[in-house]
Design a protein that fits this description.
2 copies of one chain form a homodimer. In chain A, 52% of the residues are buried. In chain A, 24% of the residues lie in helices and 29% in strands. In chain A, the strands form 2 sheets. In chain A, strands 3-4-2-1-5-6-7-11-8 form a 9-stranded mixed β-sheet, with helices on both faces. A two-stranded antiparallel ribbon of chain A has the order 9-10. Chain A is an alpha/beta fold and 257 residues long. Chains A, B: Belongs to the SurE nucleotidase family.
Chain lengths: 257, 257
């Protein structure tokens, strides 16, 4: 690539999040950076888009080293606005994160971070979502930097298969305790919900959603195994959701008279 | 099945939507019905869940033939609350819809209707999302009934493969013009966004997201082909998003020093 790559940076924790700031700092080593991120936290938004209300976009200055836009919408909205309204050429890559908290296994489905990466992938742009296994706003992202840089460089150099983006999760360990990077499949896991039922001062009942994460997958080729064993996990993720392997069997049903 | 099946019914257009009422009327022929649906429209919510605010659940009477609960959350929240707080046994099936508008091809990613079905699937419950290719609130759902019944009966009788739910789309045609039901793969398609930029009375700019749907897929085994040619499309959808076919190639990259 003769020109420096154009890098679109976004996230779902909001434009002021320390994880985003870390991601921006790494991307300056690799190319020209434009930031388009939600003006407020959008965690667990899944792949929401804003179609029934208006979107606002504001040019803001946070650290002054790159153009930055604060958007009233979801992470997927940010990518759509960036590509269609803000950037004058297609970005060479879109990176999302670094998320404060895991997006491994089934969390990919609920993740705003990965929704932004998927939206970029749908637009044909190579994309990566990065997450650190630490939900704290003041989490230490220092040890993430070298992994983020290596993986982004490899994607810039090799590209990604059509219809595929990467879901990268980084353990909350010291740098020297991390054993390396593993390419994985998504573990079969889910959340065992526990609703915390309360009564408000007016006597009306309400719920908080809480839950326990349950990994039912004993495979050693999964993201959960990698993370539990001190590796950074890289899962290639696709947005063709077709369960191709089941079509033949469903075709034996009596669906037509 | 000796007992009548327990059927959980939900949607994303809200508990008063005519599409939901049609779905309920068909389900009464097949089993015992419980409705848990959003109290307001939740279209394009993707797989959002409510973790940063409270959830309210209200027992309501709309047509009086079945227990119904109106929920302040997203379609995925409705399924979680139904399974964990409302129902005293696991439902035998969860049906979502009938959505007012298409959820074919890439729309599956943005769809609240399919998010509810996927959430049920994650909980291990066979699930189907139904959509009619008509966005009107007063769309005619009459011709959907027999297809909804046949497909639901087949799922009750055969079950679904582990980790798979069905995405069913129904053309907006007269019953006799529909040629039958086809099991399909998700077409490769996307939205070409067009943001409508306006200025509000206070002089501030804002955007409406609009766009054109572009089908780039010439395959005759896709949902788009089936719908364009007068068939009901049935796509088996999975929530293991791993692009398994790309793992071998990514394993050749230099991800470790």
């Amino acid at each position: 690539m003769a020109k420096r790559p154009l890098i679109l940076v976004t996230n779902d924790d909001g434009i002021t999040a320390p994880g985003l700031r870390t991601l921006i700092s790494v991307m300056h080593k690799l190319g020209d950076v434009v930031v388009v991120a939600p003006d407020s936290p959008q965690s667990a938004m899944g792949h929401a888009i804003t179609i029934n209300s208006t979107l606002h976009l504001e040019k803001v200055t946070i650290d002054g080293k790159q153009p930055e836009y604060s958007c009233s919408g979801t992470p997927a909205d940010c990518v759509k606005l960036a590509v269609n309204e803000i950037l004058d050429r297609r970005p060479d890559i879109c990176v999302s994160g670094i998320n404060h908290g895991s997006n491994s296994s089934i969390n990919v489905i609920y993740s705003g971070t990965m929704s932004a990466a998927l939206e970029a992938g749908i637009e044909g742009i190579p994309a990566i979502g990065f997450s650190l296994l630490d939900y704290n706003w003041n989490a230490n992202f220092e040890h993430c930097k070298s992994f983020v840089e290596i993986i982004t460089r490899e994607v810039l150099s090799h590209g990604l298969a059509d219809g595929v983006v990467l879901n990268v999760n980084i353990p909350n360990l010291e740098k020297k305790a991390i054993k390396g990077v593993k390419v994985c499949r998504q573990a079969r896991a889910n959340w065992k919900e526990e609703f915390d039922k309360r009564t408000n001062p007016m006597g009306r009942e309400y719920y908080w959603l809480t839950g326990k994460f349950v990994n039912m997958d004993n495979g050693e080729d999964t993201d959960e195994w990698a993370l539990a064993n001190g590796y950074v996990s890289v899962v290639p993720v696709q947005f063709d959701l077709t369960a191709h392997h089941t079509i033949r069997s469903i075709n034996t049903w009596k669906l037509n008279d």
